[in-house]
Automatic annotation (TrEMBL):
Record-linked PROSITE patterns: RADICAL_SAM
GO molecular function terms noted in the UniProt entry: 4 iron, 4 sulfur cluster binding; lipoate synthase activity; metal ion binding
Name used for this protein in its record: Lipoyl synthase
Cellular location(s): Cytoplasm
Cofactor descriptive note: Binds 2 [4Fe-4S] clusters per subunit. One cluster is coordinated with 3 cysteines and an exchangeable S-adenosyl-L-methionine.
InterPro entries found in the cross-reference section: Aldolase_TIM, Elp3/MiaA/NifB-like_rSAM, Lipoyl_synth, rSAM, rSAM_sf
Residues the record lists as binding [4Fe-4S] cluster 1: C31, C36, C42, S269
CDD domains: Radical_SAM (cd01335)
Cofactor entry: [4Fe-4S] cluster
Main EC class the enzyme belongs to: transferase
Length: 279
């Protein structure tokens, strides 16, 4: 019998406040776009994950429900609106991510940096984590991210080597490792990555991938259950029980990761601020 996760309904008043500020400032959070079950909990802890550079991705990953197509023109006013929203919501920890923008010369890296700068100018005490695409391992783009002034850098490996091509057909397993290695080598910050479980991988393959992440300098890791967004997306091969995620957390810590979040509903930004505090 497979274990399927159940969650409590999020507190409506918390969601309504966040949604009102987002609508007023024309912003998007991954929390809302993905209808994340943890979003009210994160909002209550003064934490949120914003998605910049539009809502259309130039890639089409088999696990992701973000729409794909040609990206829109970059909104030059987005950094200021984002900074204003962070101030109005009194957020203490902000994760900024984006769709892939392979259509842009700098892959959107400059816009990431401008968002960090705008937030820090209005909210100097706010901690900012950047969860970036791979920028096709463009070194100038990666350098822009390293110099952005962010407090933590992250890029998701997502799955094991054997499944990577089918899960992320326009990405590359080794390229993602190189991105993470670049961040770890050229930045003094902690580097984080995430893996989904339930796509058809074996435990041995997860452990191998975790070792490869450690070897390139990743110090923080999250592991969560993959949930199929629609019938058109990659199927769930297995629902893991809570015990599995507890065991994987112990394995990861014993391997040398400094901070680990592992659980059925854990996502790459889940308890992001707590993960950093553990260091």
């Amino acid at each position: 019998m497979q274990f399927k996760p159940k969650v409590k309904a999020p507190a409506p008043e918390i969601l309504q406040n966040m949604q009102a500020v987002l609508e007023k400032n024309t912003l998007t959070t991954v929390c809302e776009a993905a209808a994340c079950p943890n979003r009210a909990e994160c909002y209550a802890r003064n934490s949120a994950t914003f998605m910049i550079l539009g809502d259309t991705c130039t890639r089409a990953c088999a696990f992701c429900n973000v729409k794909t197509g040609h990206g829109r023109d970059v909104d030059v006013n987005e950094p200021q609106r984002l900074a204003k929203a962070v101030q109005e919501l009194q957020l203490q920890y902000v994760v900024i991510t984006s769709v892939d923008r392979d259509d842009l010369k700098d892959y959107g890296s400059g816009h990431f940096a401008r968002c960090v700068q705008a937030i820090k100018e209005k909210n100097p005490e706010v901690k900012i984590e950047l969860l970036t695409p791979d920028f096709k391992y463009h070194r100038d783009a990666l350098g822009t991210i390293v110099r952005s002034g962010a407090d933590k850098l992250a890029h998701n490996q997502e799955t094991v080597r054997r499944l990577s091509k089918s899960v992320r057909p326009q990405s590359d397993y080794d390229r993602s490792l190189k991105v993470l290695e670049y961040y770890a080598r050229y930045s003094p910050l902690h580097v984080k990555s995430s893996l989904m479980c339930g796509l058809g991988e074996t435990k041995k393959e997860l452990l191998v991938t975790m070792r490869e992440l450690l070897d390139v300098g990743v110090s923080e890791l999250t592991l969560g259950q993959y949930l199929q967004p629609t019938q058109k997306h990659h199927r769930v091969a297995r629902y893991y029980p809570p015990k599995f995620f507890d065991e994987m957390k112990e394995e990861a810590l014993s391997m040398g990761f400094l901070a680990v979040a592992s659980g059925i509903l854990v996502r790459s930004s889940y308890f992001a601020e707590d993960l950093g505090e553990k260091l």
